[in-house]
User: Fold this.
Amino acid sequence: MEAKASAAAPRRVPALLLAEFDSSGGILHAAEKVRDAGYSRWDVHTPYPVHGMDRAMGLKDSRLGWIVIVCALTGLTTAFFMMHWTNGVDYPTVVGDKPPGFVADLQKGGPGTLPSMVPILFELTILFSAFGAVLGMFGLNQLPRHHHPVFESDRFRTASDDRYFISIEANDPRFDVDKTRSLLEAAHASHVETIEEEAS
Amino acid sequence: MAYWEPLRELDEAPLVQVGSSLSDVTNDIARGTETRASRGWWICFLIALSFAGLFVVCVSYLFWRGVGVWGNTSPVYWAWDITNFVWWVGIGHAGTLISAILFIFRQRWRTAINRFAEAMTIFAVICALIYPGIHVGRPWLLYWVFPIPNQMTVWPNFKSPLLWDVFAVGTYFTVSLLFWFTGLIPDLATLRDRSTTKWRQRIYGFLALGWRGSNRHWRNYERAYLILAAISTPLVLSVHSVVSMDFATSVIPGWHTTIFPPYFVAGAIFSGFAMVETVLLIARSVFKLHRVVLMRHLELMNKFLLLTSLLVGYAYGMEFFMAWYSGNKYEMAHFLKNRPTGPYGWAWAWMVGCNVVVPQLYWFKRLRTSIPVMFVVSILINIGMWFERFVIIVSSLNRDFLPSAWGLFRPTIIDVGTFLGTIGVFFTLFLLFMRWLPMVAMAEIKGTMPQADPHRAGSHGEPEGAAVAKGALAPGGAE
Assistant:
């Protein structure tokens, strides 16, 4: 990658430094060092989630749960008003001498309709939560994103097999090609490379 | 004690064969999608595809002539169509159980089979959803089950269990698909990174959504997976409960029982585990997955089958007891006379024989660790569970309150063809899945291996391999 950049006509600048590690223990300690050095725009790439890495990177807990609870309550209320309005207001349907809607049910003083609503209240809560969990996860992760500087590296292909990588982005305020490189090498990286992109 | 270490006290063994490296796992599993299909795969695929063709023929004929081509007739208006529907939905349940419930209970052995089981769920639910669709007689009016504004200004009746079923099974299918796809993303990225041709890279790359194994992503991903597992657990229990309410809320002797929801859920898990095992045993030998799917996992599945068989047996016994204890003469006539000795008594005997008697073989370790025995037993359980649904539906309907209204059901050749056809559809989809997608969750397996533990003795600070030479640099010296 570096050789290609020097020969190319458009001016290329470093996009990020990519350091390779051989073991999960090695990358965990390296991540702690990068965290302690005060970097903010950096990431760890592993073939599976490494135990304890969130703490080693100094990451906070995922906020996904909050998205999902909002979706769950939306599903619940959607289901309730859908059934109440269709069968109770717009076209009142009396089945088995049960009051047609929720309000009529309360006026009659008993749970006539509500129990029959339970299955669909539940199912739509689950359905909306599942969409919230998956789409919320994509949103927080900013996926899909099919182009990323790390994919410029041929070695990075092993990140989904058995290798561990740390990438530090050039737009990190503390980024300095030489200093960052020596930090990564001191953290026992087995290989460090500079990924470049065209200057914008 | 590290979390990946087997608990000797519980007689646990390592999940993946000792000495396997992370890339052994990748190679073993990804290879199946990269090499030319074996002859075994082609033979299975062509057989399955022929039956899928039979399905197309039967359903086309059904649409041309109407539901009269089936044997359904008064008083048995629900017959093989609904039997097959319940059977297929039930099979799907084991997939969710393995992927969600065992995940929440931290049963790590599930990683060997969960991808498989989730795929099975999706394909089984597809087969299941076909039946209510073609059973309505006028399939072009199927949209009536959804609350869509229409020119008649009427709405679906939300108090009907049949409509609950639409929402339950529809939600179940959607959530299973989301769960499955979420689990696939890291493995699709692995296939993308290993691809040697442009098209493989483009297709897997497109599906992997640009996954780059980022820990900032893993954090949200793991949370999403946990939430999906947590909401799928009550969902799977609700789905077959709702299916059972299609029957239990009616007044037909044999259907009108409160034991139905848990009884259906237990039966669903029982038949689903059997189906997972049948398919897994075939895949294990065709794709040589012996390093990942160990005898240990198969034995655990057999223990699970024994447990659920006992649960199902208990439900059968309890139905009999309650019929007698109720003192209701219709209930007694149905359970004590019509089921075991009526015109469909032979089906009842298959049900009890396959579901309660045969699995008792698994009390013996030699039998539950024998591949031929478990293959035959898993197929027998599937047959038995099909007969259970047949017994519940047809033998309850054929003799109700009035002897003058009694009648018999006989399947037609189209009934048989449609049923065999959906089995063909199921296996066609499954074989395509085995050929083109990673059959075992690679990223999850890797996470359970000793190498995954960053605090493992020997990997602390000192990385192995090439980096050792650089170890002379004082750690932290650059800061």
Summary: The longest helix of chain B spans residues 161-194. Residues 458-479 of chain B have pLDDT under 50 and may be disordered. Residues 5 and 266 of chain B are 32 Å apart (CA to CA). The domain at 27-449 of chain B is CATH 1.20.1630.10 (Formate dehydrogenase/DMSO reductase fold).
